[in-house]
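Entry for the shared binder. Reason: the reviewer on the internal report wants the predicted structure included alongside the sequence.
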Amino acid sequence: MNKSLRMDHKLISDMVRRGSTVLDLGCGNGDLLEILQKKRGTNGQGVEVNEEAIYICVEKKLSVFHMDINSGLSGFANNAFQYVILNRVLSETTNISFVLNEALRVGEIVIVGFPNFAHFRSRMHFFFKGRSQFIEPCPYIWHESSYLHFFTIKDIEVYLKKNKIRVLRRDFFSNRRISFRPDLFAKWAIYLISTEKVQL
């Protein structure tokens, strides 16, 4: 695969089975959808609230619905897709449990990618300077960010266990994959989750 791909896009592409059906929630400009179609031969659709981003998707000949995922996915049937993707958007949703439950209803497998706000640089900045500082590539101060929730890898682990959501796979990375103490050293995490017994 092209080494110039963003790390999260590369990892997600590796996770998705060839020829599968995909719904990308908060798909933005459609970069990931386009990669999945070209590299994995997926049948993909997107959901996006930003109209300018939708226009870019249309130029790429991608199928995208103008919807706000915070309002639910009532237009989609149960298990309508093999994969539902929530990459870099869960922190911006108003009700994480609602959005996750809707994604798990619509998709057999859900892929969740999110920033780890417990990265050691963020911890040090908060401890020594007493101020919140987002880690790269989230270079925003707190009042300029679109993030509503600042959760960590351990937060997600506790949440998934409490809600009996199965973890099929975990990947952690910064500029490369992280295997040692990802709660401290990984800037980003990607989880494959499901409520069903799914064969990967």
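Summary line for the report: The domain at 7-117+150-194 is CATH 3.40.50.150 (Rossmann fold).
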